[in-house]
């Protein structure tokens, strides 16, 4: 691609004593990927879906109308926090305009990237900026947000000190792997003796039809053929028939290829496959974000379903924490995912938050809306 002069983007700024928050068009961040990657390495809580190698391909695939902006928080010229934002005209079918963190169906975590020690300054700057956006928005809404950890705890503290009305309008848990146990010992706690014997029996039966191997891969070696194998494997199953496989849509196919390549180039991707005579029958990808990791995509060959290749692959994955010297792995699975909930015993709390912005009248109006929503959900608002 040839070089060209970029017009200076229109920005909206919010200054605080310890830094400056700027709202910029997302394409302005194309020139800041090095600083962005450095921020990801120093983040108080990792989020691969908001790192440069995942978020930029996401925006390129899904933001044709330039509706998404980036909130970037800097201190002394250094990038210290980042979150994609979007303005929405409706909320849960109601005509309630609001500002929210941006996600798409393949972004499974919405906590912003914030440098360690800068959490409070970031939230004060973001809320101050949001207070100035009330001509178009009634409240701030955060999706897929961790309901524990330093970023959430600092937000709680700032909201309390500001006296803002806010509430968790949805909370849920999803499977998390966080244990010092070896894989077999962990499995003994997760599955009954009968289920473990059955899984061993299926593994023996599989070995009778060919050479069985588990293959771990990192880095960029063989990344392109691995991606091709995965896309073909997923498309050959029920997701292909339902037209929901990644390969069924150019945007998701391109995102998968570009994001995995970008992660591999930064040593932030682990790939595991179960093979019979070198043919992949189950595959999974995981984003490595020390001290943790995030499961991304899995697929298996339905012709081998009687051998439970997906379960065999997940059993092998149980030793990933020790292999990659990480403390935990977020499954990114649906809260009701039967396999992951059975295999992984720990849980990560997530939710959606709604937060008041603007002056007293607007906050009071939002408070009425929030209380009605939370009463319907049998939750409680904070005021």
Automatic annotation (TrEMBL):
Give one GO term, molecular function aspect: transferase activity
- Has keyword Transport? no
Question: Pfam families from the entry?
Answer: Acetyltransf_6
BioF2-like acetyltransferase domain: which residues? 193-333
Keywords assigned by UniProt, alphabetized: Transferase
Q: Which residues form the signal peptide?
A: none
Q: Which domain of life is it from?
A: Bacteria
Q: What is the protein's given name?
A: Acetyltransferase (GNAT) family protein
- Give the source species: Parasphingopyxis lamellibrachiae
């Amino acid at each position: 691609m040839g070089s060209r002069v970029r017009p200076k983007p229109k920005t909206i700024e919010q200054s605080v004593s310890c830094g400056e928050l700027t709202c910029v068009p997302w394409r302005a961040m194309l020139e800041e990927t090095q600083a962005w990657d450095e921020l990801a390495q120093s983040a108080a809580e990792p989020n691969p879906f908001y790192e440069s190698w995942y978020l930029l391909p996401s925006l390129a695939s899904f933001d044709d109308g330039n509706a998404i902006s980036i909130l970037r928080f800097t201190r002394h010229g250094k990038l210290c926090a980042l979150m994609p934002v979007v303005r929405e005209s409706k909320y849960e079918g109601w005509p309630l305009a609001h500002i929210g963190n941006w996600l798409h169906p393949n972004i499974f975590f919405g906590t912003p990237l914030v440098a360690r020690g800068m959490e409070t300054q970031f939230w004060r700057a973001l809320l101050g900026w949001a207070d100035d956006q009330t001509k178009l928005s009634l409240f701030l809404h955060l999706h897929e947000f961790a309901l524990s950890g330093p970023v959430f705890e600092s937000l709680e503290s700032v909201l309390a000190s500001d006296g803002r009305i806010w509430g968790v309008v949805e909370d849920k848990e999803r499977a998390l792997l966080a244990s010092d146990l070896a894989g077999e010992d962990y499995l003994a706690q997760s599955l009954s003796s009968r289920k473990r014997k059955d899984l061993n029996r299926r593994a023996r039966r599989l070995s009778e039809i060919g050479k069985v191997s588990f293959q771990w891969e990192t880095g960029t070696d063989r990344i392109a053929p691995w991606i091709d194998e995965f896309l073909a494997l997923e498309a050959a199953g029920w997701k292909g028939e339902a037209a929901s496989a990644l390969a069924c849509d150019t945007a998701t196919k391109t995102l998968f290829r570009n994001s995995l390549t970008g992660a591999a180039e930064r040593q932030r991707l682990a790939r595991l496959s179960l093979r019979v005579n070198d043919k992949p029958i189950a595959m999974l990808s995981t984003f490595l974000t020390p001290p943790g990791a995030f499961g991304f995509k899995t697929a298996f060959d339905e012709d081998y379903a009687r051998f439970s290749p997906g379960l065999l692959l997940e059993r092998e994955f149980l030793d990933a924490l020790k292999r990659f010297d990480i403390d935990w792995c977020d499954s990114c699975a649906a809260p009701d995912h039967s396999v992951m909930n059975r295999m992984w015993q720990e849980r990560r709390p997530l939710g959606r938050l709604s937060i008041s912005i603007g002056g007293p009248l607007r906050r009071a109006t939002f408070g009425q809306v929030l209380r009605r929503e939370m009463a319907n959900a049998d939750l409680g608002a904070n005021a």
